[in-house]
Write a structure and sequence with these properties.
- By secondary structure, the protein is of the alpha+beta class.
- The chain has a single domain, classed as Electron Transport, Fmn-binding Protein, Chain A (Pnp Oxidase, Chain A), CATH 2.30.110.
- 28% of the residues lie in helices and 33% in strands.
- The chain contains four helices and eight strands; from the N terminus they run βαββββαββααβ.
- It has an eight-stranded mixed sheet with strand order 1-3-2-6-7-8-5-4, sandwiched between helices.
- The protein is globular and about 45 Å long.
- The relative contact order is 0.20.
């Protein structure tokens, strides 16, 4: 039997995940979203969220903006403990490895994310936290 996956406890995010699954990834036409499943660092449960992504060659890039909050989102803390993740893009699901972008790559990848979703610039101005950029590479 497959292990149960728990969607984000944030009601807006949970609704967005359900709509994403129901529409095969067309929840917000024109916005590149993916579903990211991490293993909870404390609970050990599989946790799923939805994130805007950009492509960097074969890699997927996301940012742990947390809408400009002063703390990292739970999904980022989870993958920092266990970088093995599952990604769904559209109707395709695959295993992947996630890591924080290296300091030399981060400025270019941050610009890529801001080009994809300009509101990230505002989120950056809302916090003193260094917002991580995450690189996701397919493993399976």
């Amino acid at each position: 039997m497959a292990e149960e996956v728990f969607d984000s406890p944030d009601p807006w995010v949970a609704r967005h995940i359900r709509h994403y699954v129901e529409t095969g990834g067309e929840a917000r036409p024109g916005v590149p979203d993916l579903l990211l499943t991490t293993r909870g660092r404390r609970s050990g449960r599989l946790r799923r969220t939805v994130l805007v992504y950009a492509r960097d060659g074969d890699r997927y890039v996301v940012t742990a903006s947390n809408r400009g909050a002063d703390e990292h989102p739970a999904w980022y803390l989870n993958l920092a403990c266990d970088p093995r993740v599952v990604v769904q893009v559209g109707t395709e699901t695959f295993a992947a490895h996630a890591r924080t972008a290296a300091s030399e790559d981060k400025p270019r990848l941050w610009r890529l994310m801001v080009e994809t979703m300009p509101v990230y610039r505002e989120y950056r101005e809302m916090t003193d936290r260094d917002i991580p950029v995450v690189v996701i590479e397919r493993t399976g």
